[in-house]
Amino acid sequence: MKMAPAYGFWDPEREKITPEKLRSWQLEKLQETLECAWRSAFYQQKFSQAGLTPKISSLEEIQRFPFTVKEDLRQSYPFGMLAVPLTQLVRLHASSGTTGKSTLVFHTRKDIENWADLIARCLYMVGARPGDVFQNMMTYGLFTGGLGLHYGAEKIGLLVVPAGSGNTQKQIEFFRDIGTTIIHITPSYCLYLAQVMAEIGLSPGKDLKLRLAIMGAEPYSEATRKKLEKLLHLTVYNCYGLSEMNGPGVAFECPCQQGLHLWEDHFLAEIIDPETGQVLPEGKEGELVLTTLQREGMPIIRYRTRDLTRFVKGRCQCGRIHRRIERIKGRSDDMFIVKGVNIFPSQIETVLMDIPEVDSNFLITLQREKGLDSLTVQVEIKREYFTGDLHQLREIQEKISEQLKSVIIVTPRVELVEPGTIPPSTGKAKRVIDKRRL
Length: 438
Ligand code: ADP
Ligand code: ZN
Known about the structure:
Strand order of the largest sheet: 4-3-5-6-7-8-9-13
Number of strands: 20
Shape: globular
Oligomer: single chain
CATH architecture of the largest domain: 3-Layer(aba) Sandwich
Bound molecules: adenosine-5'-diphosphate, zinc ion
Radius of gyration: 22 Å
Structural class: alpha/beta
Helix content: 25-40%
CATH topology of the largest domain: Rossmann fold
Strand content: 15-25%
CATH class of the largest domain: Alpha Beta
């Protein structure tokens, strides 16, 4: 096996802490967090109703506490979950609202500093250093993707280009003129970027200095990672987070690329059975539940992320003891059911991105016709296959259909379209249109 490069540690004391020390740190921080949460109107009511007190003497006791869900944040809009007065707050973020109304998360100065420090830890881990030009191609604003990485990158001393998302020609112009070495981008936007580069005849390996892509905010498969690494001549690192837990930087891949280290000095992680709410044994797939361990402004206890993953077994070769999670399979609410079969968009993506003729974008449409569910997958195919050779196109179509069927069981209707037909997304992609619900 190829040895992964080692780039050193931003915060060796915390990253290489022993498991015993980590547990006692977590217990101490959890005790402080519970005391702090009690100061919020929301938790005071919720916990006293459940007959709980903030006093705990072991980490396992967290399991007695009720979960917090997105709806709780909506119900306590805008200030119900604050544990400090407004005068101590310096920043507000809101979730991107993928599902329903936005939810607000408030931060104190210390919260923002801690977040920036975590991001610095992540970027340093994969080799980002002063001298690197970091083009942040995530949306700035209420969404945490832009500002979230910004301050951590500055903390290391990278030259930060706060480009935001979209305006792809300009982004490429910056790559060329400023010599961008690192980008932060969603996988769907990166696929589109690769398409635009190919169309203008740009060869990243020769013409550009890009070497790293930090990629997150939405699920993507290993196949997509490999495809993008090849197309753009760089290394892709997965970055996971959610606004309720700050945003990006909750878990991040190290150079070994064998799962994402979840920073357990800042977050207490559990994996539960989404149906029963029971904590699952280590290694089983389930829903990730997170508790903030160091947040002052708005601590959140046992937050149900709805993201499905599992802990990777064993210790990572990089020397960090923080447990790793597998790349997120999808959200429990992303899953759709067709003819009684449960399907995740990520299963379809994995198949498509492994097929060489496929370009970068696809769209899934669900319909009900004469009482029967149908699943249509529109797939962009590389332009070179649209030469008028219908036989060849038919073969590609059949190949895609068969490979999809072997994974998702249902036979999809596959439509091949030219690159650029499906509207590109520069932020979070919407991959599924469910017309059955309209
Ligand atoms: P919203 O919940 O409105 O989408 P967020 O911006 O907080 O708002 O989105 C967080 C969610 O994005 C996560 O819960 C997860 O579903 C998804 N996500 C973030 N990073 C990744 C990643 N690296 N892989 C898969 N999913 C991710
Ligand atoms: Zn590692």
